[in-house]
Amino acid sequence: MTAPSRNALVPFVSVDNMMRLVLHIGVERMMVELAAEIEADFRRWPLFDKTPRVASHSDIGVIELMPTSDGETYGFKYVNGHPSNMKKGLQTVTAFGLLADVATGYPLMLSEMTILTALRTAATSALAAKWLAPKGATTMAMIGNGAQAEFQALAFKAVCGVTEVRLYDIDPAATAKCARNLAGRGLTVVSCRSAEEAILGAQIITTCTADKQLATILTDNMVGSGVHINAVGGDCPGKTELHRDILLRSEIFVEYPPQTRIEGEIQQLTADHPVTELWQVMTGAAPGRSTAKAITLFDSVGFAIEDFSALRYVHSRLRASGLFQDLDMIADPDDPRDLFGMILRAQAELAA
């Protein structure tokens, strides 16, 4: 049949090409550049359409759509969260995303986002810590050593200057995996036997677990003054990692309050408990850490603007890298009114 027109083709970034792009750019450089892209979009936060992600919950997980637009470009991500998948040999989180031109509605790019989400989540965490963590922080506790752990460690190294990562997971095999993957990457990696051991001497504490049954990862007596907590977790209603008393002692920073109050650590607090939006700190509209002894908490749940930033970052590097495939996704008849005619012409070509 007749080859598709240029208008019919949409660049697609496969998992293979995403990995090649990461290796082409370099993991740590990509973390730094993603963080810069996300910060640039946070600084123009009021321009974006904002809505809590559209979630379909079940007893075993959640499937979500995360849309946003800056008025020129539209983006969305499909993402799931199924903690029991790991027992089946499957990923807890999978994702794909799309960018489109607002002026025409035509897609600009379709991309895998399982790997890209891990990168942007880590870049956002490190970006928040750049603004909120104690000055000169060099040691991070990483509690939960699953699929996200290495990304977090490398992002904090590249963006914040962390030099030591202290690992703990209830599954020693996960800690061994993480330590092995981080070997030779310029970090001092310490494997610990408990969460209490992991946070010794850490100025930054990252919690990143997925199992809904393990509700409290940090208790109040474990957290002293002058630290920054990066609460990542597998956020959803009912899933928390921090004891409520820690929240009451902390200066809390979030992405988008209407979403975080449903899914984040602050679901444990009253609906009017004060929180600060991270974009306001970046623009100078609100203060960040108040004192050296304060506990700052970034209640990270992930927001669509971060995915938008990550997709635009990848899209901007496609042509130069060549790491994409063209998909025949858009019907493009010679006469926009004659869509059925395309089928008739295809029928004629097949019969010839």
Automatic annotation (TrEMBL):
Entry-linked SUPFAM superfamilies: NAD(P)-binding Rossmann-fold domains (SSF51735)
Domain of life of the organism encoding this protein: Bacteria
InterPro entries the record matches: NAD(P)-bd_dom_sf (IPR036291), ODC_Mu_crystall (IPR003462), ODC_N (IPR023401)
Family matches, as Pfam families: OCD_Mu_crystall
Protein name as it appears in the record: Ornithine cyclodeaminase
Species whose genome carries this gene: Gemmobacter lanyuensis
Lineage of producing organism: Bacteria, Pseudomonadati, Pseudomonadota, Alphaproteobacteria, Rhodobacterales
Name of the gene encoding the protein in the UniProt record: ocd1
